[in-house]
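User: Hi! I'm working on a homework problem where we have to compare a predicted structure to a textbook description. Could you give me the structure for the chain below?
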Amino acid sequence: MKKLFYLLAIAVTIAVQSCGNHSGSSTGESDSTANPVDSASKSITSVDTSDTASIDKAKETGVGSATQATASTDIKGIVWKELEKLPLASDPSKEESIGVAVIQPSAPAERHSHVENEVGYVLEGESLLEVDGEPARTIRAGDSFAIPAGRVHRAKTTGSVPLKVVVTYIVAQGQPLARPAK
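Assistant: Happy to help. Predicted structure tokens:
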């Protein structure tokens, strides 16, 4: 679990650092009052892996690997953009992956589960998070969450702003990140 939090912290740190190089006032001076979480959110979510210009920009700014995700969620209602992945040090047959998941207000995520734990941080929006065996709870920008391996869950965006979360997963190479609930 510590490894997942560490990976998440690294991703946010990279995003915040790259924002520091590109944010500032109209005079070119940096704004010391800017919220680093807001900056990280804008920087991370600017990576659009279906758009070549965004991929090039991400490579220049150092945000994410800007590669197409080879693993997919296969879950209705979730758009997944993988930022980085690498083989798990303790088991090279598995990969650690970090990316941004987006859920639109009009399309709640289908109930699903993951083989390993899911750890995330809310960048934008608000959602009702429903995890089997737990009371439903609201998560908002700035909140973190952890969902145990195998636990069926879903997110229902509330309000008019899409939910955007940075999420980490461990998955066997070539396997989907998530599976629909039965």
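For your comparison, note the following. Residues 19 and 39 are 6 Å apart (CA to CA). Residues 2-61 form one domain. Good luck with the assignment!
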